[in-house]
Amino acid sequence: MDKLDTNLEQQFDLNLIEAVKMNPVIYDRSHYNYKHFVRKAQTWKQIAESLGVPEQKCTKRWKSLRDKFAREMKLCQESRWRYFKQMQFLVDSIRQYRESLLGKCNTVQQNTNQVAQVDPNQQQQQPQQ
């Protein structure tokens, strides 16, 4: 890839990040239309048209950027990734997502512990006929 292609890709990434930032329906789980599939699809279509690329390229690249940002956040140190500062608007939504996952994991763990506490030596009494 030559320097011109690299510059074009970087500019595309920055434009995509800015477009997503302006449309919280895509990333903000507390947004009232976050789970509204049709609204999200319309938003992606508008973003793709504004950037002049296929919708699939936008969504695929966005997922890659979002996942990279989430991994960089996990490192708990100052990231040197070029888009880290531009994507700070995702911090709250990623934290909320992780906390919701943690809650689900804790519930599963509690249920597993309750099952494990049943004494395997106790036999269920069969109803007598």
Automatic annotation (TrEMBL):
GO biological-process terms attached to the record: regulation of transcription by RNA polymerase II
Residue span, MADF domain: 15-95
Classification via Pfam families: MADF_DNA_bdg
Highest taxon of the lineage: Eukaryota
Record PROSITE patterns: MADF (PS51029)
A GO CC term assigned to this protein in UniProt: transcription regulator complex
Protein's name according to its UniProt entry: Adf1_3 protein
